[in-house]
Amino acid sequence: MKIVVQRVTSASVEVHNQVVGQIKRGYVLLVGICLSDTLKEVEYLAKKVASLRIFEDEQGKLNHSIHHVNGQILSISQFTLYGDASEGNRPSFTQAAKGEVALPLFQYFNQVLRLEYGIDVQEGVFGEHMMVHLVNDGPVTILLQRP
What we know:
The chain is α/β, with parallel strands linked by helices. The protein has one domain: 3-Layer(bba) Sandwich (D-tyrosyl-trna(Tyr) Deacylase, Chain: A). 20% of the residues lie in helices and 41% in strands. Strand 1 (2-15) and strand 2 (18-23) form a beta hairpin.
């Protein structure tokens, strides 16, 4: 599992010209699920996202978590995080989990963030072409991966 975490001041996602998710301050998460991911990886990375301290404190240091700033999350499924272009110029996605495996894990990840960590999580639409709009704050962008 790979997650690109982007600290944002605002973000939204559109499908077919309709806004389906929108947040103010918080994170945009691009979430990639691979073939070997299990609930263990999902739970580990949900905890990591909820505990990540990438908001500035009064001294300008990255010491505050999303809870401290009452932030929200816009979670977007992103199978292309497992694109491999090491051979040739057209990426291969053989390590990305298929929809029937990835969708339940993606949904579980978002539910853990909501129910266990109390974070307001908005989502894109799994498997759809999405237009993601965001204002990256900093910019601060972190890559998290399964252990």
